[in-house]
Design brief:
By secondary structure, this protein is mainly α. The chain has 11 helices and no strands. Helix content is about 65%, strand content about 0%. The two termini are about 30 Å apart.
């Protein structure tokens, strides 16, 4: 699994604020996929957090046990058996279980390299008006991350612009995708502003904030060195 680049002097020299557009695009080609992979992992963790919140409210019952068993199998790497375990839950009337099961099935398809299946799965959740908007927004971000390479930058921005706003639950991961899309549009000033906001937002998960700090610094944003202590 690829990891985002480390922050060190060589990295910062390579992508400092004086980079020309051509060199900036070389940076995106080199590190953009690692950023997207990290975004996907972070979203999976956030989806798990949503499931846990719902599970706490409905901890009793067979459906919670079934979903818990499926997640346990996933954590152990036994993903081949998980889709069959999740299928009954995808039509369950309990919103949290239904949404969680669908998101997990789509995530498994993505892990197996079935991008089309993953995108379809995430889209099914993002367009399901019977679900709470937070679930739908989470699915939309995951869908966009899964098909990012095939989307025009303006499509990414238009799709996520209402989520890539400070104070919104999915500001961090949605903002990362929009930031990279701005760079593809040769709009580094917009990307720099957005990455800077993400890096300094205390509500953003630490991993997302760290990646945003690297990107913002590479684009010439002067961030407080003690941001993590705020």
């Amino acid at each position: 699994m690829a990891q985002p680049p480390e922050t060190n002097d060589a990295f910062l020299r390579e992508v400092d604020e004086e980079l020309s557009f051509d060199r900036m695009m070389a940076f995106i080609r080199s590190y953009g996929r690692a950023v997207l992979i990290a975004i996907g992992l972070g979203l999976a963790a956030l989806a798990g957090g949503l499931w846990w919140q719902n599970h706490q409210l409905d901890v009793a019952g067979q459906q919670g046990e079934k979903l818990g068993a499926a997640i346990k199998d996933m954590s152990l790497g036994n993903i081949d058996a998980v889709p069959a375990q999740l299928t009954p839950l995808t039509t369950n009337s309990a919103e949290g279980y239904r949404a969680s099961a669908k998101l997990l099935k789509a995530s498994i398809a993505q892990q197996k390299g079935d991008v089309a299946g993953a995108v379809a799965g995430f889209k099914a959740v993002s367009t399901d008006t019977s679900l709470d908007q937070n679930w739908r927004d989470a699915a939309l971000v995951r869908q966009t991350a899964a098909e990012f390479d095939t989307l025009a930058p303006d499509v990414v921005i238009d799709r996520l612009k209402l989520l890539a706003v400070q104070g919104k639950p999915w500001f961090g991961p949605a903002g990362e995708l929009v930031g990279v899309a701005y760079l593809k549009q040769n709009k580094p000033e917009l990307a720099a502003k957005l990455f800077g906001q993400i890096a300094q937002d205390k509500a953003v998960p630490p991993g997302v904030a760290d990646r945003a700090r690297q990107m913002a610094t590479s684009l010439g944003v002067d961030l407080p060195s003690d941001n993590k202590d705020k």
